[in-house]
Batch of 2 targets.
Target 1
Amino acid sequence: MSNALEVTNLKASIGDLEILRGVDLTVPFGEVHAVMGPNGSGKSTLCHALMGKSDYETSGDALVDGVDIMGMTVDERARAGLFEAFQYPTEIPGVTLNDLTEAMAASNPDDDGYAARESATTKTLSMNPFRERFVNVGLSGGEKKRSEMYLLGVAKPKMAILDEIDSGLDIDAVREVAAMVEAMRSDDMGILIITHYSRILRYMDVDKVHVMVNGRIVQSGGPEVAEELESGGYTELQAANAR
Amino acid sequence: MTAPTIPGTDDPAWLAARRADASGRLDDLAMPSERDEIWRYLDLDFDPAFDSAPSQPGTVASPDELAEAWTGKIVSVIDGFVTDAGVSTVISASEPTDDGVGTDLFATAYDALAPGAVLIDGDHLGEKVFVDVQSTGAATTFPGVHVEVPAGSEASVVVRFRSASDVPAVVVPRLTANVGDNARLALTVIQDWNYQTRAMGRAVVNLGRDSGLTLSEVGLGAKIGRLHLDVNFIGHGSWAKIYGVYFGEDDQTLDYRYFMNHIGTNTRSDMFLKGAVEDDALSVFTGMIRIETTGVKTEAFQTNRNLILSSGASAQSVPNLEILANDVKCGHGSSVGPLDEDQRYYLMSRGLTPDVADRLQVRGFFEESISQIPHADLRPWIRERINMKYITAQEEGRV
C-alpha cells in the first residue's frame, strides 16, 4: 500500500539561496507526524514547496498516495489530495466561506461528498456563524485556525499539512486545535503538523516527530523526541548540522 | 403615453430664456481642450454633431429587462424626450436655471437643445422611480433628470442609460437634484451605453440641512463614459455616501470626476469606488474633497481601488484635497494593481483552477461596492453583468 506522503531528496531554493537541502519524509495513512525545528530551518518552505508555490525552484520527488505531484500546478496538487492549512491564512474580501466551499465542490465534480462533509464539519466545529462571513477577514487568530480546519474537513484530503497551526494561540485555543486535529485523524488520511514548539503535541498523540535543521530532517523518532527538544533546545542540533 | 414636448414650443418662460441665452453662446464655443485638467485623459477628437439633435423621439428596438422586472414607477426618456411618463410632470419651472453645471460646450449645448428634463418631485415620492433613458439612433441627444426632494421626505430613483446596439452617438445627459432639509435621496445610475456612444454626463446634487444622499454609479458601457459630479453640502449636517462600480474593456474610457464641496458645518462625505479595466480600456477617477472656510467639523473620505487585468489597460486614480477650514477629518486611499497573487495561491491551494480562483477574487473585489448599492433589488443583475464581463474576457484570452 502506498503512503499518504512520500518525500525523497526534496530541495528548494529561492535564487541562490538553498532552503531545503534534501528532505526525506514519509507519512503513512492513518498517522499524525510532526516536523519541529527552529526559525529559518525551512519548515514553512517545506509546506509551500510541496503545495507548489511559484516562489521556489524545486527538485526531488513527492508522492501523495503514490502519485507524483511535483510536476503539478497548485490546484492540481490540491485535487490530487494534498491540503495545506496556512500559518497566515489569506484574507479574501467579498468572498464568503460558503462561496469558497461551493467553488471547491464545483472544482471536484467527481467527488460528491462535499455537501455531507460540509454539514458534518459545520456541526463538529460550530462553524455556522462563520459560513456567511468573508474568508479569513476580521477573524481572530483562533478563528482563522478553526476556519482552516473546517476547510480541511470539507476537502477531506489524503494528506494534510498544518503549517504552524498552533502559532499565535493562547493555551486554550491550542488545546482546541489539538482536539480538532485528533478528530480529523482517519485511516485514509495522513497528517503532518509543522511547529516550533512541543506545546501542541502535549494535547495529542503523534506517531512520529521529525526534527528539521538547516533544510534537512536530522532526527526522527517517537513523541519522546519532542520532550528532549523541550529541555535541550535546538542549539546542539544546529551546531552539529551547520551548513 | 404622453405626447412628447417639441423643443422650443410651449416652453415655460425660464426654459425659453435659458434656451435663447445658450443658443446665442453655443456657436462661439469650441470643443474643450484635452490640455485642460478637467478634460484630461479624454480623446475629444470627434464631432459632437449638435445639429443632429432630433425634434422627436425615435423608435425603441427592444424592451428593457431591468424595467420589465421593476415594481415601481417607470419613466421612459427616448432620445431626450419624455415619452412615457409614469410621473406626470415633464418640465417644471422648478428645474434650476442656475444649477452650477458650468458653461462649457456640452453644458451650453444641453441648455440650448435639451427638450426638458424629467422632473421627479414631491408628487412622486413613496414609490421607487425607474427612469429608462435610451438613445435610439446616431443623433446627438440631451436627456435630463431632475429630482426635487421636499424637506423631510425620501426619494428613490434609478436612472438607466442605454443605446441601440452598434450605433455611434453622442449623448449629453444631465442629472440634477435638490435634497431638502432633513430629506433623503437614494439614486442609482446605471451607465449601460453601447461601445460606440460618447456620453458626456454632468450631475449636480445640492444637499440641505441634515439631508442625506446615497448615490451609486455603475459603469458598464460607452466608448467615453464620463460623469462629472458635484455634490454641494450646503446645509449643516448633510451627508453623502457614494459608491462606484465600473468595468472597462475594449477601448473604453470611463472618466469619473467627483467633487465634494463641503460648505456647511458638520457635513460628511464617503466616496468608495471600485473598478477593473482590461483590454485597452482606461479608467479615470479624479476625486476632490473641497472644504470651504465655513465647513468646520467636516469628515470626508475617498477610496478608489482599481484592478488592471490586461497589459494594455490602465487606470488613473487621483484623489485631491483642498481644505480651507480647521477642525476637519479627511482621508484618502487609492490603489492600482493586478490581481493579488497571495489570494490566487490560497484559492488554488483549495483546488480551484487559476481561472476559477481569479473569478472568485474579482467577484469579491466588487462585492464590497456592489453590496452597498442603495437599490438592493438591482444588485444581482449588476453582479451578474460584471462577472460575465470578466468571464468573457477570460474565455477570449484577454486577461
Target 2
Amino acid sequence: MADTIVLPNTIQKPPERSGFNRFYRKHRNLIVGLLFISPWIVGFVAFLLYPILYTLQISFTRYSGFGEPVPVGFENYQHMLNDSVFWIAVGNTAFYLALAVPIGVVVAMVLALAMNQPVREVSIYRAILYLPSILPLFALSFVYLALLHPSRGIFNQFLINLGLPNINWLGDPQYSKIALVMLAQFGAGQAALIFLAALKGIPPSFHEAAMLDGASAWRRFWGITLPLMTPVILYDLILGLSLGIQIFTQVFIIFGSDPPGSPANSTMMYVVYLYLNGFRYSQMGYAAALALVLFVVTLILAMLVFRWSRGWVHYEGA
Amino acid sequence: MAKAIPAASAAREAPVTNWWLHPVRVLNQSVVPRLILIVMCAVFILPLFWMVSVALKPTAELSLYPPTFWPQQLRWENFSDAINVFPFWQYLRNTSIITGLTVLGAVISNPIIAYGFSRIDWPGRDKVFFVVLATVFIPYPVLIIALFDIFARLGWINTFWPLTVPLFFGNPFWIFLLRQFFMQISQEVSDAARIDGASELRILFQIIMPQALPALAVVALFAALHAWNDFLGPLLYLQDATMYTLAVGLTFFQSASQYDIQFNLLMAASLLVVAPVITLFLIFQRAFVEGISFGGSK
C-alpha cells in the first residue's frame, strides 16, 4: 500500500504540529533576523517615519501648539514665497554651506597629508587637532564669543600684530557669516582622521611604481592619492552638507542675543528660523512646512551630489 | 620602531643619485609637514587655551586693552563663583542621568540590531541595512516640530524621556560600527554553538559580545559624548529651569548684550563642563581615534 513516491518525503519531514511551526522552520532566518532588528524598526517608524508624515500633516494647518490644528491648505507654503526672512535664511545657509564644506575638505586634506608624512611626534599633533571635534559645540561657541570679542578677545590682537584691521567679527553683518565658516573649521580634525585612515590604505606599491616612472610628488598626489581618496571625500562632503544645513547651536549662542540671527539677520540660518517659528512665534504649521522643505532640499542635495560624484569618484575595481 | 619608519620610507623613495636632492626631501618630508602641523595645532588649541586663560583672570584684568595673553594674576575663586551663578550641581545631576541612560540605551540596543544585520543571513537584509545608512543624512531639525508635538501629547516635555528613550532603538552610526566589527568575528564558534542548541541571543551575549568589547566601548564613549554635548535637544524638551542640562544652563551667563558677559565666570563654568570630555579623551584617545578612522577604512 505504501506510496513509494511520498514515502521519502514523510521520512525527511515529520508531520508538522501546526502551520506556524512549518512557517517558522521555512523562514527561521527571516523571523529571527527581523526580531533582532525590531528595535530599529520600531524606532524608525516611531521617531522618523511617523514624525515626517505628521510634519507633512501639520504643514497644511495653522497650529499654535495648543488646541487643534486648523486646516489651511497650501497657505504655509504660499507664505514662504513672500516671506523675505525665509529667503534671507535660505541665502545665508547656502552661503555658509558653499564656503564651510569645501574649505573643510581642503583643511582636512592638508592636515591628513601632513600627518601622513614620517613625522615622529605625529600622535601629539593628532590628539591636538582632533580634540576640538569632540568638545561640545556649545562650549566652543562660548569661547568663540570670548576669542572674537572686539576689545577683549585675543584673535583680533593677532590680526593687528599682522598689520590687519581690527574686525568686528560678531557685530558686522559683513563678517558674521565668515566667523561661522571659520568656527566650522575647528571640526576638521575629525575628517582629517578619516582621510588619514584612507591615505594609509593606499598600497605603497602604487607610489613606488609612479616614482620609478619619474612622477613628481605633485603629480602623484593628483594622479594616485586624490583619485583613491574620492570615496571618503564624497562621504565627508555629504555628511558635511547634511550637518552644515542644520547649523543652529553656534548661531543661537554666538548671535543669540534677541533676536537670534543678529546682526541684521546676517546669521539667520534656516534651522534657526524654523526654531523661532515653531517655538517662539507659535507658528507650528509654518515651522512644519519649513521642516518639510528642509527634508526635501536635503534629499535633493544628497541626490545631486551622488549623481555629480559619478563623474569623479573612483571605485576600486570599477 | 618609531625610528625605523622614517628610515624605511626614505629608503623606499627613489635612490639617492644626487646628494643635493636629499635636503629637498628632508624639507618636504619632515620640515614642511611639521611646520603645517605646528601652526595648525597652535590654532586648534587656541580656544581651549583662551578658555583657561580667561577663566583664571580677575574681573579687573578682563577690561585691560590690549587683553593679556597669560593671566597676570590667577583667580581660582572664579570657579566657585561660577558654580554659584547657576544651579551647577543640579544641572550636573540632570546631565549625568541623561548621559547614563543614553549610554545604557546605546549599549543594549545597538549590538542586538547589529547582530541582526551581520550574523543572521535573511533575505532582504542588505537592502534594509541600506535604509539604516540612508537615515544618517536626514537632519534632526526636520523632525523637531512633529517630535515636540508628539512628546507634548505624551506628557514627556520637561522629562528626560525625549532625550533618552529614542537611544534605546539604535543609532545608524553605531549599528554600522558594530556590524562591521561583528562581521570580522569567525563564524565557526557560533555555528558550533548553534548545533549545540544555543539560542541566537545567547550566542550574541556569550560569544560575540566578549570579542566585541573594544567596539562596544567606542559606542559607549560616543554615546556619552552625544548626550553630554547635546544642546538643541535639551533646549527643546527641557523648558523648566530645574530640568536644564549643563549645556543649556550655561546660557544663564548670557546677558541681553553679547558684549557685557562676565567672561571669566562663563569660561570657568565652561571649563568645568568640558573637563570630563577632555579627561575621557585623554584616557581613551586610542579608542576615539580608531572609532573615527573606522569610517575611513570602510
